[in-house]
Amino acid sequence: MPAFAADTPLLPEASAADRALPIELDAAWSELDRRNNRLVFRNLHITQGELAISAEEATADPADFEDSTWVFTGNVQIENAGLQAWCDTAEMTFSNNTLRKTTLRGKPARFLQSRAGGSPTEGRGELLEYDLGARTIRMTGGALLSDGSNEITGSNIAYDLAREVVTASNNGAGQVRMKFTPRQKPAGDQPGQGTPPPAQQTD
């Protein structure tokens, strides 16, 4: 589906400049388990450049961004470079202070991604998995992908951002559904409209 452009990545990979920015963390309550090198936060808000994450609770294991897994639970909200996402639980894997993979779960988990000169891309599903290295998004469980004009629904939707390829399936149960909205041509391009051809003279 060419309408779904590759300029709509979920949580785009941070640039070297972004990785150098300080990570600011605010929480109403925190606990550090030194023996297991594990952090627990409540009413957490994290920002780094354009990235912002908030949740009712979060755990970090180990307690850093170097090589760790963070789990956010309860009214999770994510904003980053024109993206907005909402879910019940988010698991994020960091390596070398860079986000590598993220998994969003909800009833449903959903995201909106702004697109230059067009309607935002919307995606949802009970499970959203984004691999930043492979540049793929997989949505499962009541999955939907829409750009405002065209829409795909199914049990599983895989979106390859690099190849701009969308694959949808229903695991043998039901049908994959697609809705396409024809592009409207300018009035002068419609059949029977526009400037009529010049009359031909006959002898």
Q: Per the principal axes of the C-alpha atoms, what is the gross shape? A: elongated
Oligomeric grouping of the chains: single chain
CATH topology call: lipopolysaccharide transport protein A fold
Largest sheet: 11 strands, antiparallel
Q: CATH architecture, please?
A: Sandwich
Give the C-alpha Rg: 22 Å
Tally of helical segments:
1
Strand content: over 45%
Helix content: under 10%
Counting structural domains, the number is: 1
Series of H and E elements: HEEEEEEEEEEE
- Coarse structural class: mainly beta
* Overall pLDDT metric: 79
Taking the alpha carbons of the first and last residues, their distance comes to 54 Å
The first-level CATH class is given as Mainly Beta
Tell me what the structure shows.
- The chain is mostly beta strands and 203 residues long.
- The protein has one domain (24-182): lipopolysaccharide transport protein A fold.
- Helix content is 2%, strand content 59%.
- The chain contains one helix and eleven strands.
- It has one helix at 16-20, and strands at 24-33, 38-48, 51-61, 67-80, 83-95, 98-115, 118-131, 136-146, 151-160, 165-169, 177-179.
- Strands 1, 2, 3, 4, 5, 6, 7, 8, 9, 10 and 11 form an eleven-stranded antiparallel sheet that branches.
- A hairpin with a 2-residue loop joins strand 6 and strand 7.
- It starts with 15 loop residues before the first helix and ends in a 24-residue tail after the last strand.
- Residues 5-9 have low confidence and may be disordered.
